[in-house]
Design brief:
It is a single chain. This protein is mainly alpha-helical and 71 residues long. It has one domain (2-20, 36-67). Helices cover 69% and strands 0% of the residues. The chain has two helices and no strands. The longest helix is centred in the C-terminal third of the chain and has 30 residues, at 38-67.
Length: 71
Amino acid sequence: MILQLFQIVVSVLLIICVLLQSQGGGISPVFGGGGEMYRSKRNIEKFLFIGTAVLAGLLVISSILLLLPHK
């Protein structure tokens, strides 16, 4: 039960991370689209990229754990 709830939370967070990485323009339009915030925009995009990879890994691990037979 706890593992299923964990998987749901990770799935929702993964969907949010993917949707924040808009195609082409990056995350700039979300925060107003200013070019003067290049450094912070770059850091946010890097954080979203790493967060997406970590969440995807957690989702895979939790899916495998749910497949294992329970006693």
